[in-house]
Amino acid sequence: MAKRPPVIVDTAGRPLRTPAQAHYEAAKLTRRTSGWHTRATGPNREIRADLHKLRDRHRDLARNNPWVRKAIAAIVHNTIGHGVRAQWSTPEVQQRWSAWFESTAIDADGHHNGYGLQALILRTVVESGECLIRRRPRRPRDGLPLPLQIQVLEPDFLDTAKHEELANGGIIRQGVEFDRLGRRVAYWLYPEHPGDAVRGVPGQSKRYGAEAFLHVYRLDRPGQVRGVPWGTGAMLRARMLDDYQDAQLERQRLAACYVAFVRDTELPADAAPLDDYELLDRLEPGAIELLPAGKDVSFASPPQPEDDERFTNQTLRAIAADYGIPFEVLTGDLSEVNFSSARMGQQEFARAIDVWRWQLLAPQAWDPIARWFAAALALDGLAPAGEPRWSAPARTLVDPSREIPALRTAIRAGLISLPEAIRQAGYDPETLARDQAAYLDVLDRLGVRFDSDAREGRVG
């Protein structure tokens, strides 16, 4: 007797359609979908179960897999570059910001300036899924440009096991505490990194107010509390491709080992083999092995893909797509690129970079750090007017001879302002104007004129 499909009911107990009766092909229970197992889990339950394993495996790939290392580096280098600059409205504030942000005094660990911290934060988010930024107030007598430092922490400090409901109506989810209204109020952190604990255990986690921390991560689902490493859909492919290429390298190395096997044909075939003979277990170039009676050597011939290069490239395209970077950026292979395709690929990558900059890093890291700076500066009696404007590094032009005239035409047509075009080039319009004016005065004194100077009545 055929087994009847299960009856699916809603929360009120009313029967719904069975998978076999579903209107959507992908929702039907058929032979093609019999191995497709899914679970209706929320974002935090699935992350809580898999976070540590995902993070550890992705870090292993980041250390040992060249493609994952390149993908992470490409995201960081293209998004941050030499640094995303803040432009404050008043020169006094700008000077204080530069003295603090552009020196290693900003870093509680003393290694990076602000631009280096930007790169470190994004790399941690991509590699580990999330990053913690801690505000560390300092004393005026510490001799810093500003009594404030920034400390970047890996997400391992968060006590993921801290997951409970509180008597006051709040809740702790994977080390992040919320009040009864759903606002973040605290983080439960270990006193030291669990992977660096001297005695092997990190100790008991402690509660720290959320006002002193920033939690930076990519939200893939509404209500998601913790972040997961990027490229989760490509991790298995990257690992298997690495194993495959290692096997191919070993195969080629063995193929380069010319080994001769000599068999004594005068001995009878049924001669007893030598009991104390040890067959060669390591191939070396130029080796000659004498085989006694009863011994033979054969080599396995594993099947090879018909088109190894195409197979590898298709796998690399899948890896690049999951990280959100072009195949050419991941591999450096520009053999099939012309101006139009390079331009289109770069535009798509530029849109992804804009999302990472202005929808992830700016609201979760850069703007809050600027507010911390403004609060610390207000203690000195200097209150900034508003928040800064951020200027990202200029993108590299594919063909300047075509793109610069197009940009000049857009400015003259009023489609883009000159200051905005300057900001897109990675410069501060006011700083550039002052530098240009000062340099033109120098040229006037020296009686020199360049083609870039279009002013009337100039010397020369």
Task: Describe the overall structure.
It contains 11 helices and 12 strands. By secondary structure, the chain is α+β, with helices and mostly antiparallel strands. It is globular. The mean pLDDT is 84. Strand 4 (164-165) and strand 5 (171-173) form a beta hairpin. Helix 1 crosses helix 2 and helix 2 packs across helix 6. A 5-stranded antiparallel β-sheet has the order 4-5-6-7-8, with no helix packed on it. A 3-stranded antiparallel β-sheet has the order 3-2-9.
Cα distance spanning the termini = 101 Å
Work out the helicity level.
Answer: 25-40%
Low-confidence stretches: none
| Number of alpha- plus pi-helical segments | 11
Give the structural class: alpha+beta
- Which H/E pattern describes the elements? HHEHHEEEEEEEEHEEHHHEHHH
Mean pLDDT: 84
Percent of sequence in beta strands: 5-15%
Strands of the widest sheet, in order across it, are 4-5-6-7-8
